[in-house]
Amino acid sequence: MPDNPRRATLATVAASAGVSVATVSKVLNGRSDVAPATRSLVESLLREHEYVPATPRREPCGSVELQFDDDLNAYSTEIVQGAVQAGAEIGVGIVVSINKDPGHSTAWVRDLIAAGRTALIAVTCEQLADQQVAALARARLPLVLIDPLNLQSASVTSVGSTNFAGGLAATRHLLSLGHRRIAYVGGPATAACNQARLHGYRAALEAEGAPVIPGYVWSGQFRYHDGLLGGAAVLDLPTAPTAIFAGCDEVALGVMEAARARGLRIPEDVSVVGYDDTQVARMASPPLTTVRQPLREMGGMALRTALRLAAGERIDSRHVELATELIVRGSTAPVPG
């Protein structure tokens, strides 16, 4: 990451406090030989200046933080597996954490550095705040986002997948089975990955001359409960869909349960397609047709990219998309009747 020329230094804080650089250093290191009033003043100025110790360029070693901002699920587990496996091959430790509230950006980054992290890989349900990204940049602590819900500034590195192509493939598969009443139950309406899958869905329908029926697009979160709600909403319409494309596998399982609660059989009465190809897709009954998002490969690539940034190497692209693939299983069938 590029240096920020306005980054506060120990000398900056010392000058503001009217003390020596050594005194500021003692406060940072928790030394006891500093007067309480002086300590309080220096700590206040450290926060005011948003001081974060600059970290030198590192060789690929040490540990990398893989941080989530929500509870782990089948999707998260795949990413962890990929990152841990790549770390074992390279000889780098992976520390997995859940941080739903990073609090003050500077203190959050300072804690990462104090723990000896080489880089941060973040999987977030929300967009990182600009202050958090800026604090990481000032500290020269590399950041890589995995499958970001929203692409941030061009300077933020991310690893994702071809979501538009995935949405296109899922919908084309249903169209090939004769379905024309196809609903989409997806994630957050403003999320970039959800928008790309939805655009792929719409593009496939438009190319076939099939309409997007009013009420057939439903947005929630990428969670099982939202699949229950979204599935109920579209299946209770006066003209119910014969097929549903879900924004992720967990949502797809909720949709399937909503269909069963209405006496509908899968795939005889309604076909369902998921997205991600996590373990739950293979364990579903019937096994779920889904778009495989290469989550393990994404975890491994994110780790290797983070280590390249930490070593001061240049990377060819700030955003990498890995290919998706349609996996056909038992949850889809030709249109009924």
Automatic annotation (TrEMBL):
Keywords for the protein's UniProt record, in alphabetical order: DNA-binding, Transcription, Transcription regulation
Domain HTH lacI-type: 8-53
Residue runs in coiled coils: none
CDD domains documented for this protein: HTH_LacI
Alphabetized Pfam families for the sequence: LacI, Peripla_BP_3
Domain of life: Bacteria
GO molecular-function terms, A-Z: DNA-binding transcription factor activity; transcription cis-regulatory region binding
InterPro entries named among the record's database cross-references: HTH_LacI, LacI/GalR-like_sensor, Lambda_DNA-bd_dom_sf, Peripla_BP_I
PROSITE patterns for this protein: HTH_LACI_2 (PS50932)
Protein name: LacI family transcriptional regulator
Taxonomic source organism: Nonomuraea jabiensis
